[in-house]
Amino acid sequence: MALGQRLEKTTKAPGLRLAGETLTLDRCGGLWLEAHRTLIVSDLHLEKGSAYAVRSGQFLPPYDTRETLACLHEAVARFDPACVVALGDSFHDARGPERLEPGDRAMVAALQDGRDWVWIAGNHDAAVHEGVGGRYAETLSLGGLTLRHEPRIGAPEGEIAGHLHPCGKVAMRGRTVRRRCFVGDGHRLIMPAFGAYTGGLNVRNAAFDPLFPNGFTAHLLGDGRVFTIGRTMLVRD
Amino acid sequence: MPDIPPPENAPPETPRLPARFADWFAARGWQPRAHQLELLRLAGSGRSALLVAPTGAGKTLAGFLPSLVALAGAGRGTSTARGEARGLHTLYVSPLKALAVDIARNLETPIAEMGLDIRVETRTGDTPAHKRTRQIARPPDILLTTPEQLSLLIAHREAADLFADLRCVVLDELHALVTSKRGDLLSLALARLHRLSPALTAIGLSATVREPDELRKYLVPQARPAAAEDDPEPPAPLPAPSMAELVVVRGGAAADLRMLDTGLRLPLAGHTAWQSMPAIYALIRQHRTVLVFVNTRLQAEYTFQELWRLNDDVLPIALHHGSLDATQRRRVEAAMAAGQLRAIVCTATLDLGIDWGDVDLVINIGAPKGASRIMQRIGRANHRMDEPSKAYLVPGNRFEMLECQAALDAVEEAAQDTPDARLGAPDVLAQHVLGMACADAFDPLRLYEEIVSAAPYAGLPWEEFEQVVDYVATGGYALRAYERFAKILRGPDGLWRVRDARVAQQYRMNVGTIIEATKVKVRLARALRGRPGTVLPKTGRVLGEIEEDFAETLTVGDTFLFAGEVLRFEGLAEDEAMVTKAGPGTDPAIPSYAGAKFPLSTFLAARVRALIADPFAWDRLPRQVSDYLLQQRRRSILPGPRDLLVETFPRGGRFYLTAFPFEGRLAHQTLGMLLTRRLERARLRPLGFAANDYGIAIWTSRDVSERIGLSPGFLEDLFAQDMLGDDLEAWLDESAMMKRTFRQCAVIAGLIERRYPGQKKTGRQVTISTDLIYDVLRKHQPDHLLLRAARQDAATGLLDVKRLGMMLQRIQGRIIHKALDRVSPLSVSVMLEIGRERVYGEGADEILAEAEALLLEEALA
């Protein structure tokens, strides 16, 4: 292996223009809108581990919620946003908020303290969350941007959505690297899932085709920074 | 059910066969062998025994003889006795399903010829459900099965009844079983059998091993199980023995074993042995039936291809390895048994197994890697003990010549390198505990006593057993999140019970310790002539399976060797890899796909070191090897048998450090990762490393020789044992191999469910990747049972940390450094590995950056 090619680790994230707004793609998987001092994260899927215990009797380590919140805390500390938007599927199921451990519940409250917090409705958690603070919305407009959970075919320019958990895979020199990614075409941007236990759907899957009829660029979350990869370099699973 | 006394209550000093058996032996012109009679005597007096014998010694018959004699006697010999239900008398466990089926067939002959009323049946994964049900209700006298099926049987609600009358358990190929997690699982099942039937005799059958005592302990309970309150019988007056009796059959005829020396100059690296193919083909022509063993599937494919290129006589030469389609493999085996083949090129899949009488030559291509393995393979020829087995070792490079010579010496002395006894794995124990709850409510103290009676678990502290029970119940997390969903529950009576039928069903689906890599089928597709690159899926036949990981690295148009042909990859369709046959003369472009690769055994490594250190032994080596060693001595130095030689030299603007521990590729890869970290800290700017079975090479952009000269003790510090402390921990946490190990533990322990072959993946992954689970668990509960299990595996498995530790200890104060101005003969061998090996899972960002750069190029073009 070639350690010599070790790259300069940088946290400087690529900037992207969408509907006249400047977006910063962060390596944690969050999206930072400096002009609005707003941090967007998508598909937290809190309490996914405990949902498995309820549904199938699988006892996955019950630490996914605190891990997800810790990552979110790290990003919040870095950007100090005036507003945090959770772009839907914030809880893995409608009963998720009830199962929050007291410590994790306190962590959510601490994160919300002193800032605006918006839960966008998702398909896993369409109902209003009780007892976890913040306000609720189906969609949110921010400058020229429309924030919603599930992307809509034919939506006007400026849509930011989640839901699909995009992942990109690169195969080179007999090795593959598969990472969560942002995927966009200058018209819309789909965000990676933020949750610790959230898997991913390969961006070469047919589900992405109608959303990006003219191709797309993916931004893969590396260990040190975000990497911009052309569609032709991405392989199927 | 009444207790059936053993046939001979007072065994005579010289055991005799019952008349019916003696007549049968005589009719076949056979003499019962001493070890067969000895085993009969021991089992007759209720003592367990280990039979160690070479192949062809009549081991299997010896193992069954006590049961056949017992079942024939005591009024059970006449067919009129049939009618009332009899209990299961003898259980036979084999590592291979096919072996169990084959033994059942072989047993039918003596039973039929002696007219015995003994019912023999097999129980494998292929046994139909109605037959399984019937086998529980009305068991046969002798049941032949596998370790996994046995685990399922003892977890059955009827297990206590089924095994109450069990008198004998025969464990075949025990040496091959005990060194793995399968062996751990079997030891726990055996402990349960001993408890259900205290009069049980265990008979172990084994090839020659270095430490028979480990196997002797394995067969018998290590501490006397606590007497059950409801047991009317007082415990046996004799204290439970901690070792089974030992019966050893010495040698047979010495093997006629040689190294194939074609006189051609061999390269310093590479394993294909292409120079020797004509000589191998000539040997096949001169013999009746030849088994050609190789170490990896790639090598099998290559050898098969080469032999057919030479095959002007169109001799029937076949290919057999684990990736081929099962029906294809069965066809090859059947053709072999029928004597229709002249040669089979095969991998470890044929190391054990069915007796093919007609093999008159074994050829082993590549390094033998271990003395025991080579003896097992040699034993596949000429399955008659009194005739010598004939075999050739074929080295692929000059180092392998050394290794072959070391193996020849070892076989000559009948020395063995079987691995040490195992420490029972916690993940296997977790699976077993759930199984025991499925069988019946258990009392924890009593189950603990039973478990520590199994040799691999004899040292298990009570606290760790409690942790396992806690894990099975609610996942074993410090955060008590799953109390309400517990899989096993402790009742007011203090007994643990399984929660419901669904949990029991989950257990049954998950039993066993063999975790197969996820595979995809390889199917021949028809290319559409008009439209290049387009294929009709699902049209052709299935050629076999390849690991999903390998399939994922292929892109359309890649060519690779598989099933004896060069194939062109056309794409993935659902869960199948579509391929077409590549045009004639196409070279396979993709070098390899995963397959078994054994590391050099510790024992053989020590012999190779000794051989190198002793010039007087060199006259036994081929001339080209001794010349090579002489050159090394002239240009650098030859290390002593316990020394570590470190060479440093500049080359092409970089600085190299090579070291030769001879501890096998796995340990060297781990060593390479750790040394690189340390060199980085020493600001020597390491750029990469390569490893093979014999040594490692690390290259840096700063001068290592200079640093060694300037700071005394630098090398000693670099190789100091504390490398296995923080550096190892830090690396392990990120290592992809560690994640793979964790995944296996998680499946065995039932944390995540197995994926079965053929089970379709849904578009969106519904299963959570174990890598994600590993990362979260490591951060939040680093002492969790499954992380401990993964670490225990890493010590001996993919990372071979244990061996590395022994090496670091060995070389303390024995590092010999030689600063050179250019590469030495010894170092060339490992330098040739550079660029050939790939290390998984490291440097993902480098790969991404490279892909990103390509986008930039595209944009600027």
UniProtKB/TrEMBL annotation, chain A:
Residues 37-138 form the Calcineurin-like phosphoesterase domain. InterPro entries: Calcineurin-like_PHP (IPR004843), Metallo-depent_PP-like (IPR029052), PdeM-like (IPR026336), Pesterase_MJ0037-like (IPR024173). It is an enzyme of class 3 (hydrolase). It comes from the Bacteria. Its EC number is 3.1.-.-. Keywords: Endonuclease, Hydrolase, Ligase, Nuclease. One of its GO terms (molecular function) is hydrolase activity. Coiled coil: none annotated. This is Ligase-associated DNA damage response endonuclease PdeM. The lineage of its organism: Bacteria, Pseudomonadati, Pseudomonadota, Alphaproteobacteria, Hyphomicrobiales.
